[in-house]
Design a protein that fits this description.
By secondary structure, this protein is an all-alpha fold. It contains 14 helices and no strands.
Length: about 300
């Protein structure tokens, strides 16, 4: 396949010459192998300690939907997958410890839906009522996804105002269905008003350090890019940052929100930089082979062959 002589975001006067690794990678479609390797690493090294295999798959799907929500911001697999791995590192302990699989999956899916709504994929919002209903039937934390989605009402759609009206309808329907579903699941109106996830999971020292590693840069970006940021990214980051220190599961959710913010600010600027863009594109094709090697090692370790 012929390659373009230049890359979007670079100086059109500077020719971009793909290296042999990139040329071979394009022929072999190595980008699919690389991203499959990233998800294999997440499943085996981060979410591989669940009692049942389907829990590992569901938790990994949560990370998959998060990546889909991040991808359009950078158009770069390296940055997107590294930020994804950072977010999953925060979630590993609390999600595995409390079997908080379905809420983690559905929050990742909610990010995918709402970022699609912001990026001109508005029809995804029609899935929200079903998402909140299913979430409420298994856990009392469904309001996390509802609050996250409500923040997108502050996103102006001046060119097509009916999109925001449709979003408000979907959110109202989602709230009603989720509350009714929660009542049916707990068989009590009083229990349905309990919005905290069952059994507190306080983050330990290591989890707090990992949280700080992604949270502090996110808050710095929030302050630096405040005027440029869209309202949903501002208020979601602030809201979930306030919750993060109370429970490890809230920290896992905040890490996802922080990943969205980072990819919408500093990493988007760096990837789009005329100076750095060629470097990222060259390195990307090497990176796919690196993560493939790590994934092979993870599989061999799981089978007891490698140490």
């Amino acid at each position: 396949m012929a390659s373009n002589p230049s890359i979007a975001g670079t100086d059109p006067g500077i020719a971009y010459i793909p290296g042999p690794v990139e040329r071979m990678g394009r022929k072999l479609k190595v980008e699919y192998l690389g991203m499959a390797s990233v998800y294999s690493i997440i499943a085996l090294l981060y979410f591989g300690d669940f009692l049942f295999w389907y829990q590992t798959i569901l938790a990994t799907l949560g990370a998959f939907f998060l990546f889909l929500g991040l991808k359009k911001k950078t158009e770069d697999h390296v940055i997107g997958s590294l930020v994804l791995l950072a977010a999953v590192s925060v979630a590993q302990g609390p999600v595995v410890q409390s079997n908080w699989v379905v809420p983690y999956l559905l929050f990742g899916f909610t990010i995918f839906v709402m970022e699609g709504y912001r990026e001109r994929r508005p029809t995804r919002i029609y899935a929200l009522p079903a998402v909140f209903l299913g979430w409420s039937l298994v856990d009392s934390s469904w309001w996390l996804g509802a609050v996250f989605s409500c923040m997108y009402l502050a996103f102006p759609r001046a060119e097509k105002p009916h999109f925001r009206r449709h979003l408000s309808y979907m959110l109202i329907a989602g709230f009603l269905l989720a509350f009714i579903g929660h009542i049916l699941a707990d068989r009590s109106i009083f229990c349905a008003s309990q919005f905290f996830p069952r059994g507190r999971v306080p983050p330990d020292r290591i989890e707090l350090e990992v949280l700080a590693a992604i949270g502090i840069p996110a808050l710095l970006c929030l302050a630096s890019y405040w005027k440029k940021l869209m309202a949903p990214h501002r208020w979601n980051t602030l809201f979930f940052a306030c919750l993060a220190v109370w429970d490890g599961r809230f920290a896992a959710v905040f890490a996802m929100v922080a990943a969205v913010l980072l990819c919408a600010t500093v990493f988007r600027d760096s990837v789009d930089s005329p100076t750095l863009r060629p470097f990222f594109k060259h390195f990307e094709w090497h990176y796919f082979w690196y993560v493939f090697a790590v994934a092979v090692w993870a599989y061999l370790s799981r089978w007891g062959i490698a140490f």
